[in-house]
């Protein structure tokens, strides 16, 4: 028998678990458009968690962060990526190197490693339970797996963006009181990444007329 | 002061409720599914008429089968009616036989029922029945880890794995309901139930498309009263699993806390109502998803496995 977390901690953990499940959903999803939608959903959940923390723990700066990440990650980034996708007329992601069930099992192992590695650190936070921190590390690691097993530029970009979601979840746990300017700097980092990945997708699709990265292994003389 | 039922009567009412209500639940789901597809659908009582018709027919057995083939439907039915003695169907307090087995024990009894039917199907020599038996055992082995992890998370939450204990824990406070382990384990169990009751996205429940058949194909060689028992049995299994989900995990409210006639009757009505809500959810899922290809079922099961493993992980971290 273990001590039961209170209602606030329990709900916060459920929201953090939802972020992880959305990450796994992106790993499983083969249709690129739906992958982008899942990313938008995940960002929405992270923004909601920021708002919940702002309300429950009385950290009003987080409202601004929640609003900013809502505008940027739920609206702008998915819009930009779907716009890029519209020009490419490719809907299905290139086959992953592993099957769906296998990659889920691999990610469970990787996420478990992240869970217990961070759980063993014993970091405690004023605003959110430690479990949320472990979950955020699991999100980051599963995003790595997503980027490794997928062979198309869009999935890899989405993997990178969702990795940022994991990091902002972690920052909610360990640094909710961090000055707002730092958090906003993170968000603008993401904006830079979006531009870079956008250019990458464009150039790659222009050269090889596919989104698959397997064309990159060919040697050029 | 209301009249108290004798405890053995309440005990007997648990399997009786399941036995009587199960075909009706299937009937409502079939009706609702048809309405969602824009059809009028069969009458809600149609499963009862089907059973009555089958019981009035003669039964034929394929050449070369022995008594096992005929005993299997009866044994399976007995198994499905044993489980309601172990789980809180009507009462919050454990009845005398309620502690005979835990969740794992109930799972074993359910698998035993499905095993005897599979063995009977294997005896027939009919290719479809054998195919169904082989498939159902193969996929049952895949879903087993999910069930085990759900049991683990129950054991970590309550310190025991008695269904009555978990139901009481869930009732005890709001923080028990919102804890992620509970929600994740319930979600995983729901996915397992979709598999076990042969619903979309695993299997089409109605129709005779043998490519996707798993559980439904096993009864092809049975006829007459034996087929009726098999059909009734699978309806009972469905309601037993719904009851497990509702009264242990999702909504263990509305159960009788004493043996008074009024509260037991109310508990029966609530159970049927809650099972209908779950059935409605299942009907919506049936109508809004496509059936998975047979070899994609592992993908579906991996999602359920993910939920149950994350449930255990969060519990070990102390945040579940």
From TrEMBL, chain A:
- Write out the entry's keywords from A to Z: Cell membrane, Membrane, Transmembrane, Transmembrane helix
Report one GO cellular component: plasma membrane
Q: How does it sit in the membrane?
A: Multi-pass membrane protein
Q: Where in the cell is it found?
A: Cell membrane
Its transmembrane ranges are 6-26, 38-56, 62-85, 97-121, 127-149, 184-203
**The keyword Membrane appears for this protein:** yes
Q: Check the record and name the InterPro entries matching this protein.
A: HyfE-like
Q: What is its main location?
A: membrane
* Record's protein name: Hydrogenase
| Source species of the chain | Actinocatenispora comari
Ranked from the top, the taxonomy reads:
Bacteria, Bacillati, Actinomycetota, Actinomycetes, Micromonosporales
TrEMBL record, chain B:
Question: Record's InterPro entries?
Answer: ComplexI_Subunit1, NADH_UbQ_OxRdtase_su1/FPO
User: Transmembrane region positions?
Assistant: 67-91, 103-126, 138-157, 177-195, 239-255, 261-285, 297-317
Q: What is this protein called?
A: Formate hydrogenlyase HycD
Primary location recorded for the protein, binned into one broad class: membrane
Q: Give me the Gene Ontology terms describing cellular component.
A: plasma membrane
**Superkingdom, according to UniProt?**
Bacteria
Q: What keywords sit in the KW lines?
A: Membrane, Transmembrane, Transmembrane helix
Pfam families attached here? NADHdh
Q: How does it sit in the membrane?
A: Multi-pass membrane protein
Which subcellular locations apply to this protein? Membrane
